[in-house]
Amino acid sequence: MNKTANYQFTIVVPVYNEEDNIYMLEERLSTYLPTALYSSCVLFVNDGSKDKSLERIKEICGRNKDFFYIDLAKNSGLSAAMKAGIDTAQSPFVGYMDADLQTTPEDFNLLLADIDTYELVMGIRANRKDSAFKKMQSKIANGFRRMMTGDNVQDTGCPLKVLQTPCAQKIPFFTGMHRFMPALVMLQEGQIKQIPVRHFPRVAGVSKYHLWNRLVSPFIDCFAYRWMKKRYINYAIANHNIED
């Protein structure tokens, strides 16, 4: 039996070479879970880490009854790690946060308060604690993405999101498409709400993002999304006689 089915909310945490953050993640997440609006568990997705991340994930899962993990056979990227976690979760709601702790799990309660009404509730990083250059890249990429997708989302890169699991599992993920999660939810005629959340400086580890995967690659992916949007199939079954 998939143990996430015993909970209402699964927090997916993709991990790639974040050994210095694992114990801090344990502290923050274990402190949050008793206060969560829904019964919650944590699902770490080790994305082929080459450091001691997996070893430490297994360690903390061994001493926290609500912590679980899956280990990808090789490094496959953030979109693949997110999809693996979302596809594995069997709780009614699924959330996502980065392992770098630049957002706090406590703010999931801000998002969970509206998840019954919206298919996706996502954060907006307030008072963002990044360099001016990094914020400029994100501003340009977000503006171009909004123009291409029409999703009107202010901060699609905010690593704090909550979704209704059936909607999340229908999202057609492929490399780079984690940036287009709101637009992909809209293809299903899903409703989205944006809520300001706190943002903190990275205190350990190093960012996996640079000019190519923060700015250039998203530009290219916008055209892939436009191509897919024209061909996306969305249907609803009106009636059936499959069940007795």
What does this entry look like structurally?
With 244 residues, this protein is of the alpha/beta class. The model has no long low-confidence stretch (mean pLDDT 84). It has a single domain (3-231), classed as Spore Coat Polysaccharide Biosynthesis Protein SpsA, Chain A, CATH 3.90.550. The chain has helices at 22-32, 53-63, 78-88, 108-112, 132-149, 165-170, 181-187, 211-231, and strands spanning 9-15, 40-46, 67-71, 93-97, 120-125, 160-164, 192-197. Helix 5 (132-149) runs parallel beside helix 8. The chain has a 7-stranded mixed beta sheet, sandwiched between helices. It has 8 helices and 7 strands. Helix 1 links the parallel strand 1 and strand 2 (40-46).
Write the layout of secondary structure elements.
Elements: E1 9-15, H1 22-32, E2 40-46, H2 53-63, E3 67-71, H3 78-88, E4 93-97, H4 108-112, E5 120-125, H5 132-149, E6 160-164, H6 165-170, H7 181-187, E7 192-197, H8 211-231
